[in-house]
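>> Question from a student workshop board

For tomorrow's exercise we were told to take the sequence and the ligand below, predict the bound structure, and bring the output to class. My setup keeps failing. Could a helper post the expected result so I can at least see what it should look like? The ligand is ubiquinone-1.
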Amino acid sequence: MLRKVLLHKSGCPQLKRCFSVSNNLLEKHNCKVLVVGGGTGGCTVAAKLTKWMKKDEVIVLEPADKHYYQPLFTLCGGGIKTVQDSYKSMQSVLPPKAKWIKKAAGKFDPDSNTVTTVDGDIITYDVLVVATGLQLRYEKIPGLVDALEKFNNVGSIYLPQYAEKTFKVLQGFKDGDAIFTYPQSPVKCPGAPQKICYISEDVLKSMGKRGGAKITYNTSLPVIFGVKRYADALWEVVKKRDIKVNLQTSLVEVKPDKNEAVFENLETKERFTSGYSMLHAVPPMSPPDVVTSCKQLVNEAGFVDVNKDNLQHVKYPNVFAIGDCSSSPNSKTTAAVAAQAPVVHAHIKAFLTNDKSSLAYNGYASCPLVTGYRKCILAEFDYDLTPQETFPIAQNRELWSMYVMKKDFMPVLYWNLMLKGNWNGPQIVRKMLRLGF
Ligand code: UQ1
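>> Workshop helper replied:
Here is what the output should look like for this input. Compare the format with yours to find the bug.
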């Protein structure tokens, strides 16, 4: 940083050119809207904005080369899809009219309307959209990183390389305990930790290994699912499939050299050790440090503190959050982002044009609960945990049609409509079905 500033001041054009080629000069940028994060939320809202804004008025700050469609990771873990199916290059998905700065955010300063990149560039904005998502905290469980990196019987569908590994873990399973976990923290796609359990059960069945397998789902939550209609259906699924569920049971340590996992009963605080033949571990998660360390921006839990109806910051009217890093108390899924995007977009547009918008987000989220090969319960609900089902059929049943929708239809919709700013969630489908189309 010091070197950069000195070079900048030296005024030697040759030196400057030389170092700017190596991307080592402190740069300043100005934009109307700065979107931090090129994941689902960032990309979708940038696509909407660039439909009417001028080229380069929107900047997307994102260091990654690849954009992953994360809802496929569970299917990768079950060998139904491959990791290659789950990503495209960042360049190909970011809207061409946005300026992409391929760097990570280092510091937010909402009082001066700036974000500084990790290497010192300063970006000044009129409006900021925080869309950083959640950071996976595998390191918070002692022994887990080692287990995932060095042992062939531990998987985790939350990262592409470990999702791929999860299928290998299943293929190598002989017999004994297969344990699946859900951490003690907010989680993106809270259905995924149990979806991989159901899919794995089917994989083991198809391999002829189910008889020798004892399957357990240990969840930190006090319920199997937050919405009663779907929780009732899921209890039937686990009963039928002989999957043992332990509520309020949190993974606290892995001892991979002994094939042991330590759990805490969150009610009694007692700890117990379980031996495993295979373990599927979901990491604790939190917004990234760069967000949580900006105290003006976040609530006590470290999430960007926004109004849950319009996703506008409670203190800074020119700051918005979308997706997993937002404090809005919805279930954190891709479908939730689809419903949030038009609201965030409308309120940004209103802010920039001195107008008002009454568009509000009702907390819609959906979770296609894949319960095995060819079966899926499509849960849809709002902030009040009231079901908001799209289709005129009882969606609390395991349906092949919903499985096909999840596996084949949703990825096409995601890449072609949602990331281009043209999918606002299924309310349009609901309206059309009601009108009898
Ligand atoms: C949805 O809108 C969405 O976002 C693109 C998903 O994420 C992949 C989903 O899984 C689902 C189910 C929806 C909702 C869409 C319909 C047609 C019910």
